[in-house]
Write a structure and sequence with these properties.
The chain is mostly helical and about 425 residues long. It is about 75% helix and about 0% strand.
């Protein structure tokens, strides 16, 4: 692992981006724009379906669920195709499909056509996201060897740029909301069209080690037992993040009787992450990866343990009820601190476990594994959350399940990391 003292001084917080090679800088910028284009539209899909297409709640859930499945469930395919045919063809194909998806969404006047559109939008990400991650894995190994920046730190930068995009997209969408949903979709399509030509003409292709065939890549992953264990343990990190949308509203309902503070909670979490992502990533780099993984996932476990301790009891009413929000705020602080410490280190470890071969397939499989974990955990935790809306002993159960999952990963991941070698 690259030691902090071997990293060039020019890679301080304010200059690290400019110290990177031009292709890597362009990749980071396009990651930001990917999220701007996506979050410009997707957060407003449910409102559009309800108000303009008279969709029921069940139908809205089905459409959004199909988008998630077509993305998370097919990441492994996009990763394998990246290893077989190269980053650039798969990336460009994915972007082109997303352009088509957004155009179709903007023209949709029925649920059926909109469903096809969101499936295209999701499948596009299943193609270009593993290709982008493979690019960062390969480019990060080179920047680490050159003493510019470690691969884990490059993954942290990727997370930072992606977060900026996910914050900017909804703001731009809100500004365009009065112009109508079709206009928002066409603007998103325009952004991805720009990205298509940027990648085709400007952004150099990052070369990944080619595989003999798609099946050869799959076989390599499925025979790698340490990685399979790692993927299962790592997937709880995505489960943890997903609880902001599934379980946090339930805790707010228990504590305050409404979800009015939810939007402000998301703003707080985003600003907190933007401010501390790079400092915490560098702190994690200064310690053995076993320590960083243990601390990171341990903090995620403690985030849910805090709520498990508070859930059975009525929320305090002091300070006008503001104290009732303290467990939720502390949960977000611990959750995001743990993720900022552990996840860049864990993503760096993927290349190590893959022996730098078929990295696209490995990242695709990892993300698909996370999607399955989110689906299963949502079913399990969701069935327990009904009892967590009011203070009672059973209210602790879903939080204890989540605590146990994160704690198990805090044990397993350092063991895998200890056995991995550079």
């Amino acid at each position: 692992m690259l030691k902090p003292e071997n990293t060039a001084k020019k890679t301080r917080d304010h200059t690290v981006f400019f110290a990177l090679p031009l292709p890597v800088r362009l990749l980071l910028i396009t990651q930001l724009l990917f999220n701007v284009g996506f979050y410009l539209v997707v957060p407003f899909l449910a409102t559009f379906m309800h108000e303009n297409l008279a969709a029921t709640g069940a139908m809205i859930g089905l459409v959004l669920g199909m988008r998630t499945f077509s993305q998370q469930g097919l990441f492994f395919l996009g990763g394998a195709l990246t290893d077989r045919f190269g980053v650039k063809p798969v990336l460009l194909t994915g972007i082109a499909i997303r352009v088509a998806g957004f155009i179709l969404a903007g023209l949709s006047t029925s649920i059926s056509s909109l469903m096809i559109a969101v499936i295209l939008i999701g499948f596009a990400a299943a193609l270009f996201s593993p290709a982008a991650e493979a690019s960062f894995a390969v480019a990060g190994k080179k920047t680490e060897e050159d003493g510019i920046v470690s691969r884990a730190e490059l993954f942290a930068l990727d997370a930072l740029f992606s977060r900026v995009g996910s914050l900017t997209g909804p703001v731009l969408g809100a500004l365009l909301l009065s112009t109508g949903f079709p206009v928002m979709c066409m603007v998103a399509a325009g952004i991805f069209t720009l990205l298509f030509f940027a990648h085709a003409c400007i952004v150099p292709a990052v070369k990944t080690p080619p595989s003999e065939s798609v099946w050869a890549s799959f076989s390599q992953v499925l025979r790698n037992r340490p990685f399979l264990i790692f993927a299962a343990a790592y997937s709880t990190g995505l489960v943890c993040y997903n609880q902001q949308y599934l379980a946090l509203p339930v805790e707010l309902m228990r504590a305050t009787g409404n979800q009015g503070a939810l939007g402000w909670m998301f703003v707080f979490a985003s600003v907190f992450s933007l401010a501390l992502q790079m400092p915490l990533a560098r702190w994690a780099q200064a310690h053995p990866r076993t320590v960083s993984l243990k601390i990171g996932f341990g903090l995620m476990a403690s985030a849910f343990a805090i709520i498990a301790l508070c859930a059975p009891f009525p929320a305090p009413t002091a300070l006008g009820g503001m104290l009732a929000l303290a467990p939720s705020i502390l949960m977000l602080i611990l959750m995001h601190t743990g993720q900022m410490i552990a996840l860049p280190i864990a993503r760096d470890l993927v290349g190590v476990l893959a022996k730098e071969q078929s990295v696209g397939t490995y990242f695709g499989f990892l993300n698909s594994c996370g999607g399955v974990a989110v689906l299963l955990s949502s079913l399990i935790v969701g069935s327990l959350l009904d009892a967590a809306t009011i203070p009672q002993p059973q209210a602790a159960f879903p939080w204890l399940v989540l605590t146990g999952m994160m704690a198990a990963s805090a044990v397993v991941l350092p063991m895998i990391a200890a056995r991995a070698t550079r």
